[in-house]
Amino acid sequence: MSRKILVTGGAGYIGSHIVRQLGEYGYDVVVYDNCSTGIPQAVLYGELIIGDLSDINRLYQVFGKHQFDAVVHLAARLVVPESVAYPLDYYSNNTCNTINLLHCCNVMGVDKLIFSSTAAVYGESNQNFVTEDAPTSPINPYGRSKLMSELIIQDYARASTLRYVILRYFNVGGADPVGRIGQNSRATHLIANACNAALKRQSELKIFGTDFPTPDGTGIRDYVHVEDVATAHIDGLRYLEDGGNSEVVNCGYGEGYSVRQVVERVKAKAISGVDFPVINGDRRDGDPASVTASIQKIKKMLSWQPKYNNLDAIISSALAWEKRKLK
Ligand code: UDP
User: Fold this and answer.
1) Cα of 13 to ligand 1 centre, how many Å?
2) Range of the domain at 196
3) For the chain, what is the domain count?
4) Is residue 191 part of a domain?
5) pTM (2 decimals)?
6) CATH number where 212 lies
């Protein structure tokens, strides 16, 4: 009998890639998503239930109808500046709703969880390659809402049979290599914005801060392809199915690129070949200077083997997806 997995936020950008891979691997998938940013057409496998995690009665009904073997929990808000402006939305959506989900897991006996967390839990790290045991000190409400969720999951796991894999994503980019799904919500992230500038959908690309303590003064991030991030969830699920203990693991490539380097690659002849205007702006609230992952642990614990570890591949697939959206 195939295993049944609940994916919250499965109609969203990362979630839809996970759902597609779960479907391809023969899992039975149920997606629970309020479709505030996700879209129904992005769910290529399984059943989509449009609902909000704040509606705990609905959630109990869903858990009552299906016998889930595991939950993959992504549904959340994820834009750093928005979290600074609307912190309560972030604590409700990200933290309180995680508690609702855990209540359902508890009552219905679901004991495996993959949780989507973020490098934002580290804040300003002084490690070049931040390890999972680095101090957590988020500098924005988004990071704090996710860290609180992590702590709640860990406390609940200590008091129950739940085992979890917490994946701390670094900067997820790119799209399905054959163009079926990609990022649909309004772009706020660097690669999507730069692609939109190359496609003349926005007049320029603004760099948020050029006075960071980095070699070229712009923020450094570890960009990871969404396909590889999705695969990390499948690997995490298999790890738990094989009896693995609860773990927190980074999901990045262990390579940092500055904003200027990313912009340069988007403009490159081999990628867009478009020299769009770039302007220097002020720093954005809540942005750390540099965050790059140590990835020894995910490779060792989950046997994760990324296939798209290449900035150009990430940007090219993102650009191809943005072009399709124009049609
Ligand atoms: N950034 C930028 N211009 C943009 C969007 C982002 O300069 O239009 C910068 C941002 O300040 C950060 C990096 O690009 O240094 C990555 O930001 P993004 O929003 O993609 O992801 P985050 O790291 O905030 O999750």
Assistant:
1) 17
2) 180-221+255-293+308-326
3) 2
4) yes
5) 0.96
6) 3.90.25.10
